Amino acid sequence: MLAIAGGKGGVGKTTTALGLATAYVRRRRRPLVVDADRGMPNCHLYADTPGERGVADVAAGHPLADAVEPVRALPGVDLLAGGDAAPGSYLDRLPRGRPLIVDTAAGAGADVGAALVAADAVVVVTTPDEEAVVDALKSAALARALGTPVVAGVVVGTRDDTDGIATALDAPVTAVPRSRAPLRNTSVAAAYDNLATATGPNP
What we know:
CATH superfamily: P-loop containing nucleotide triphosphate hydrolases
Number of domains: 1
CATH class: Alpha Beta
CATH topology: Rossmann fold
Structural class: alpha/beta
CATH architecture: 3-Layer(aba) Sandwich
Shape: globular
Strand content: 15-25%
Radius of gyration: 15 Å
Number of strands: 8
């Protein structure tokens, strides 16, 4: 289970979760993206799914197959939409036989902590802006304090050298160019393919 985290909202966590999922599809895997943002669950909007089923159903004990929505715009990707359920009430119920990508909330609240604890590793997402980078470093520090390794970083909105951020995060960093349609952009797809390599074969 791989958590996608970042201290600041709007830096590209949800796009990264879906973009990385499509990279795993290209590797002949069937990933499940989980929206663990209880306060602003919007992954289904990015994925263009109804968001009528999701984490609350799993937390209530319903079978995963009844709660998952296939992402028709991204064939091969499934989504567990967000809702009013704490990550600790459903993440441990998810089967581990497929890539699990957890889109966390911004910041360092209890829900983020629960998702980081449940995850095997974390990818920290930021933009090149100084404030976002500072917040990303706080997310990385929180993950490590909870015993979850930071396996990679993502800097959305740049093609520039990211060595400084990689050094600060103490993890390899993938630069993702900004795009108005990132999930249909070939340069962005190539960046997420690189991220899939950095995160390993079994998230």
